[in-house]
Design brief:
The chain is an alpha+beta fold. It is built from 4 helices and 5 strands.
Length: 95
């Protein structure tokens, strides 16, 4: 699955250094996987949740949240946002 864009991951990890390794590990897992549906994503990322048409991944043991749109047919993962848990709880990312 192609991840668009790694830049968001890098920008977030520049501010929150402890997120760098987990975010890049997440990216590599996504890029080396070919998911057909949510069930297959859930097998690899047990804590992933689906919120409407978005997927929410826990990063750093739920310290951060990565919000992405997955297009299974085209094998594209669009990173919408990487948020602290506090920012995630504000729910502005749902818009």
């Amino acid at each position: 699955m192609r991840v668009i864009t790694n830049r968001r991951l890098l920008e977030f990890s520049a501010k929150f250094k402890d997120s760098q390794e987990p975010l890049q590990a997440w990216r590599k897992l996504m890029e080396f996987s070919c998911f057909k549906n949510f069930a297959e994503v859930k097998q690899v990322f047990a804590s992933v949740d689906k919120v409407r048409d978005l997927y929410v991944f826990n990063i750093c043991r739920n310290k951060y949240r990565l919000v992405a749109y997955l297009h299974f047919e085209r094998q594209i993962c669009y990173v919408k946002a990487v948020l602290t848990h506090k920012d995630y709880d504000k729910a502005g990312w749902k818009k």
